[in-house]
Amino acid sequence: MHPLAIADARAFWDGALQAAARGERIILCARRGDEVLGTGSLALVSAPSQPHRAELTKVMTTASARGSGVGAALVRALEQAARDHGRHLITLDASLVGGATRFYRRLGYRPAGDIPEFAYKPLGGLAATRVLWKLLDAREIARPPIDTSMDEAHMRQALALAERAMLDDDEIPVGALVLDPTGKVIGTGWNRNIAEHDPSAHAEIVAMRHAGAALGNHRLLGCTLYVTLEPCAMCAMAMVHARVARVVFGAFDPKTGAAGSVFDMLEDPRHNHRIAVTGGVCADVAGPMLTNYFRRKRGLPPR
C-alpha cells in the first residue's frame, strides 16, 4: 500500500502475530492447499470501559478469491471467535473506495459515520473511511422477513418509467414507483427537473407526491419505493420523513448515493425511523441506461 514499504508491512504483521501469541489478537488465514486466499484479524484488547468490544481489521482476500465467499467466511469465523471470547460488539472501519462498505452491509454491519482523510489509499493519497458496528447477541433492530420475489418485476416497471423520462422529456432516465403495504402501485414518477424548472422534482419525490395524494396522508407507512438509481441525500431524507418502510434501487451512485455508497441516510441509527434497503436490482440495465444517456449528450457512442 503506497507509500508504505514492504518492510513496514512485515513489521506490522510480525507485531500482530506477537499480539496473537499474547492473546490480544486473533488472526485467521484462509487457504486452498498452500495458496493463501485471505486473512482477517480481530483485536481483543480495548479500554477497561470496553471489555465487551472487539475490533475487526485487515480482512483481505486475493483477487482470485473475491466473490467466492472467502471474505464472508472469514468475517463469520472472526465473529464466532469474538463470541467465544465474551465479546458481543464488533467495530471496524472500511474504505469508501471500492465495495468494502457494501460487503459489510450485506453481513449485517451498520454505519456509524464517515471520517475524512482517515488512511492511505492503495495507490497513495488520503481517503475517507466509514465506521461500522454490529451487535452479536441478537439485540440488533428486529425486522420482519422481506419478500424479494417481486423486486425485479417492479424494478422493470421503474425502468420503463425511466425510459419515458429519457424518450418523452429528454430528462435524466430515472424512474420510481411506490407500492402500498398490499403491493398495489399508488405512485409513479420520473425525473421532471428540467421540464418543471424544479430542482426537487426527482423521480422519487414525484412518485411520493402521487402516493401521498392517493393515501391522503403525508406518511407512507408500510410502503415500498422502487427507484432505478440509488437515492441522493435530498430524496433519502424525504423517504425518512415519509416513514417509507423499504427502498429498492437499481444502479449504485458512487458520487452522490445516500443509501450506502457515499452517505447512509436510510439506515442511520441516529434517525428515529430507519428504512430497509436493497440495492443493485437490475443494475445491469439501470446503470448502462444512465451511462449511455450522458454519453449521447457528449456525442459519444453507447457502451
UniProtKB/TrEMBL annotation:
<dbReference type="InterPro" id="IPR002125">
    <property type="entry name" value="CMP_dCMP_dom"/>
</dbReference>
<dbReference type="InterPro" id="IPR028883">
    <property type="entry name" value="tRNA_aden_deaminase"/>
</dbReference>
<feature type="domain" description="CMP/dCMP-type deaminase">
    <location>
        <begin position="149"/>
        <end position="278"/>
    </location>
</feature>
<feature type="domain" description="N-acetyltransferase">
    <location>
        <begin position="1"/>
        <end position="137"/>
    </location>
</feature>
<protein>
    <recommendedName>
        <fullName>tRNA-specific adenosine deaminase</fullName>
        <ecNumber>3.5.4.33</ecNumber>
    </recommendedName>
</protein>
<dbReference type="GO" id="GO:0016747">
    <property type="term" value="F:acyltransferase activity, transferring groups other than amino-acyl groups"/>
</dbReference>
<dbReference type="Pfam" id="PF00583">
    <property type="entry name" value="Acetyltransf_1"/>
</dbReference>
<dbReference type="GO" id="GO:0002100">
    <property type="term" value="P:tRNA wobble adenosine to inosine editing"/>
</dbReference>
<dbReference type="InterPro" id="IPR016192">
    <property type="entry name" value="APOBEC/CMP_deaminase_Zn-bd"/>
</dbReference>
<feature type="binding site">
    <location>
        <position position="202"/>
    </location>
    <ligand>
        <name>Zn(2+)</name>
    </ligand>
</feature>
<feature type="active site" description="Proton donor">
    <location>
        <position position="204"/>
    </location>
</feature>
<dbReference type="InterPro" id="IPR000182">
    <property type="entry name" value="GNAT_dom"/>
</dbReference>
<keyword id="KW-0479">Metal-binding</keyword>
<keyword id="KW-0862">Zinc</keyword>
<feature type="binding site">
    <location>
        <position position="232"/>
    </location>
    <ligand>
        <name>Zn(2+)</name>
    </ligand>
</feature>
<keyword id="KW-0378">Hydrolase</keyword>
<dbReference type="Pfam" id="PF00383">
    <property type="entry name" value="dCMP_cyt_deam_1"/>
</dbReference>
<comment type="subunit">
    <text>Homodimer.</text>
</comment>
<dbReference type="InterPro" id="IPR016181">
    <property type="entry name" value="Acyl_CoA_acyltransferase"/>
</dbReference>
<keyword id="KW-0819">tRNA processing</keyword>
<dbReference type="GO" id="GO:0008270">
    <property type="term" value="F:zinc ion binding"/>
</dbReference>
<comment type="similarity">
    <text>Belongs to the cytidine and deoxycytidylate deaminase family. ADAT2 subfamily.</text>
</comment>
<feature type="binding site">
    <location>
        <position position="235"/>
    </location>
    <ligand>
        <name>Zn(2+)</name>
    </ligand>
</feature>
<dbReference type="InterPro" id="IPR016193">
    <property type="entry name" value="Cytidine_deaminase-like"/>
</dbReference>
<dbReference type="GO" id="GO:0052717">
    <property type="term" value="F:tRNA-specific adenosine-34 deaminase activity"/>
</dbReference>
<comment type="function">
    <text>Catalyzes the deamination of adenosine to inosine at the wobble position 34 of tRNA(Arg2).</text>
</comment>
